[in-house]
Design goal:
It comes from Mesorhizobium mediterraneum. It is found in: Cell membrane. It is a multi-pass membrane protein. By secondary structure, the protein is an all-alpha fold. It has a domain at 104-330: Orthogonal Bundle (MetI-like fold). It has 17 helices and no strands. α1 packs antiparallel against α17, α5 (94-129) runs antiparallel to α14 (269-285) and α12 runs antiparallel to α13 (256-267).
Length: 348
């Protein structure tokens, strides 16, 4: 068997084993959460008989092991079960609840990736070409600053910036500044597009309107993830530029940009792709905070709401989707790294 194919199959097998272990962790963690959905729904005035009947109806009266294998069996068949919010004659499946929210999260993640990945690669290549220059220092300082703050802080600061666009000139702080300075700051603030600070999105929202309303969450995520990818690109390119074959390319009279794009970048893909995959996985898994801040109707916001209402099937499905996406993107990174750098098949 081809070594690359064998390695890919091994990684896929490890991925499936990891996902199986993750299902156990997810089910166990949720099962140990305090509180009872039946009692929370029926209220304190409910009799023990009513609570027991409701528990039987939603299936939480069975032993945990039985419930776990029933849940896994449903997942294998593509069925995430029914929400605890279902009622007799009105069955709401988890898939029905998650589908539109998952689309919104994927939309936000793809939109952010289309901005962040080219931006990070471009900045990383330029920083490597002009290393130790003022450009390199400015880019590194700005990206390190943005990555040093948590997502919610960046999100709130961007929202405050948009709000200040119309209110700054009337604030006490602006009044305390010299008139020319306050006018200059106000002029700069008015250059900022007035993005919506609340992502009011529904199924009927037109595509470009969706893009406009998701702009601020997307910018927040871009500022948070671009630093990792940019710095790894810079380091990988600088390491490649020290190789003997790069000296040969310089002796042939090739331009610095051509050397990077044709010789350095293809050989530096392995670490760069790995970091890109990690950050793309974060876009799916780590959007919870950003979705909550901007009230973006994605799967992260849904999971938070489901935890509050103790809707266990929805929480389990959301957690499993996050885990499966993270594992899949890491497997993809491994496969691309091996395909672009076969030397990884023979570790020292």
């Amino acid at each position: 068997m081809n070594p690359v194919v064998r390695t890919v199959l091994q990684r896929l097998g490890l991925g499936l084993i990891t996902l199986f272990i993750v299902t156990i962790i997810i089910f166990s963690a949720i099962a140990m959460l305090p509180g009872d959905f039946a009692k929370a729904m029926l209220g304190q005035s409910a009799t023990p008989e009513t609570v027991a009947a409701f528990q039987r109806e939603i299936g939480i009266d069975r032993p945990p092991v039985e419930r776990y294998f029933a849940w896994v069996g449903q997942i294998v068949q593509g069925d995430f079960g029914s929400s605890f919010a279902s009622r007799t004659g009105y069955r709401r499946t988890v898939a029905e609840i998650i589908a539109p929210r998952l689309y919104n999260t994927m939309f936000l993640a793809v939109m952010t990736a289309l901005i962040a990945v080219p931006l990070a690669l471009g900045l990383g290549i330029l920083a490597a070409l002009y290393r130790n220059s003022w450009f390199d220092r400015v880019v590194n300082t700005v990206t390190l600053t943005t990555i040093s703050f948590p997502e919610f802080f960046v999100a709130y600061m961007l929202a405050y910036l948009i709000i200040s666009r119309d209110t700054f000139i009337g604030t006490e702080f602006a009044q305390s500044l010299p008139e020319w300075l306050a006018a200059s700051i106000n002029w700069v603030l008015n250059l900022v597009p007035k993005f919506p600070t609340l992502a009011n999105i529904s199924d009927r929202t037109p595509f470009w309107e969706h893009v406009w309303r998701a702009a601020l969450p997307s910018i927040t995520l871009t500022l948070v993830i671009v630093a990792h990818m940019m710095r790894m690109t810079r380091v990988a390119i600088i390491n490649m530029l020290a190789s003997p074959y790069i000296d040969m390319a310089r002796l042939k009279g090739m331009s610095p940009m051509a050397i990077v794009l044709r010789h350095a970048l293809p050989n530096a893909w392995a670490p760069i792709v790995t970091v890109i995959a990690f950050n793309l996985a974060y876009l799916i898994v780590g959007v919870v905070v950003v979705e909550v801040v901007f009230v973006y109707p994605g799967i992260g916001q849904l999971m938070v709401d489901a935890v509050k209402s103790r809707d266990v099937p929805v929480v389990q499905a959301c957690a499993l989707i996050f885990a499966a996406t993270y594992i899949l993107l890491n497997l993809t990174a491994d496969i691309i790294s091996i395909a672009t750098n076969p030397r990884l098949l023979h570790p020292r």
